[in-house]
Amino acid sequence: MPEAQPMIESAAAFRGRDLLTLANVSPRAVLELFATAAASKADITPYRRVLDGKSFALLFEKPSLRTKMSFEVGIAKLGGHPIFMDHAAARLGARESVRDYAKNLERWVDCIVARVYLQSALDELADSARCPVINALSDRYHPCQALADLFTLFEQAGHDHARLREMRLAYVGDGNNVCHSLMHAATLLGVHTTVITPKGYAPASDVTRECEAFAKAAGSSLLVTTDPAAIERHHAVYTDVWVSMGQPGGVDEVTRRRKIFSKYQVSADLMARASSGLPSPSLFMHCLPAQRGLEVTDDVIDSPHSIVYDQAENRMHAQNALLIHTFAR
Ligand code: CP
Ligand code: NVA
Fold it and tell me: Is 91 part of the annotated catalytic residue set?
């Protein structure tokens, strides 16, 4: 299982490895990845052939705009060959076992990028396949998103880790896959993180425990609370949809959550409270797609302090950096 996998201590250690979660990635590895992301974002030319002759299966059980496009375009820019496999109609394991599926795919491709319903299916894919497997979102984690998000904040901090560490990040909403990976990435890097969710929607307790340990090791802190008043004095406020793809419950659950989460909407008022006591307005972040008018209001997502499209752009640069190190010769 991913938590038991050996640590990725440096960017060089990504070579040939899976990326299933950020729980086994060191702060040094993430910062070295950011250096490559910054370099390849500034000039892709030296990296144009790093994936020469490599083929990538992009296997998606769920819809996607950003992840699909950023991997397809990024792999092509690095000289590789992406092959999109739409698995919306047939879940992994439905037609043949996940193991057989992996043992076939590994004969043709050099890497599997997979968006799945169940992290357990992804773990089985990774256990079975000889080639690296990259998590493009599961019910538990969205590590590529979190790498891009922290890279976006790193840019805001002038590519300076000490300045990044001075930032305080708040996540408001459902303690979901995006929240889990964001908590991993932020606490690893020593960014103080506050997670504010309604009662019953907190992040998984094992993830919280891991992140408390990361924060302690980095000399920072993590607060998980149900109190929206905890939003004060945060440089960045992040939210995500209240109902994620594949979450059970149907229409009734959607209606129920709208009521429960209404106090956790990121509005202009909440952003003003986040900024209180700070020298400049807080940044707004969202992985997208957004349900405008629910978890965030239009005036917030469209404000000059919203960096959501930078996050989307950086999906590609962060993933390119990961692929550059995964396939370093
Ligand atoms: N943020 C994100 O993963 O977007 P997609 O679902 O469009 O890939
Ligand atoms: N939490 C959302 C993120 C989408 C990118 C979901 O899983 O649907």
Answer: no
- C-alpha–C-alpha distance, residues 328 and 179, integer Å: 30
112 is a domain residue: yes
Check whether residue 170 and residue 138 sit in a common domain: no
Return the residue whose CA atom lies nearest to atom 6 of ligand 1: 64
Q: What residue ranges of the chain have pLDDT lower than 50? A: 1-3
Q: How far is the CA of 285 from the centre of ligand 2 (A)?
A: 14
pTM here? Answer: 0.97
Looking at residue 232, which CATH number applies to its domain? 3.40.50.1370
The Cα 161–Cα 243 span in angstroms is 33
67 in ligand 1 pocket by Cβ < 6 Å? yes
**Do 190 and 247 belong together in one domain?**
yes
Say whether 49 is catalytic. Answer: no
Q: How many residues does the chain have?
A: 329
Please report the pLDDT score of residue 123 as a whole number: 97
Give the Å distances, CA to CA, from 169 to 15, 157, 186, 214, 231.
Answer: 30, 13, 8, 15, 9
Give yes or no: residues 153 and 284 share one domain. yes
Residue 1 belongs to a domain: no
Can you give the pLDDT at residue 153?
Answer: 98
Closest atom of ligand 2 relative to the 66 alpha carbon: 5
How high is the pLDDT of residue 3?
45
Instruction: In whole angstroms, give the CA distance from residue 125 to residue 209.
Output: 26
| Eight-class DSSP state of 186 | H
Residues 258 and 271 in one domain: yes
Note if 315 is an active site residue: yes
Which one from 180, 184, 315, 317 is the annotated catalytic residue? 315
* pLDDT, tens only, 184-217: 999 999 999 999 999 999 999 999 999 999 999 9
Which ligand has the shortest distance to the CA of 318?
1
**Site of tokens 């989307």:** 312
- For residue 3, tell me if it sits in a domain: no
pLDDT at residue 1, as a whole number = 43
Q: What pLDDT does residue 2 have?
A: 44
Residue 287 appears among annotated catalytic residues: yes
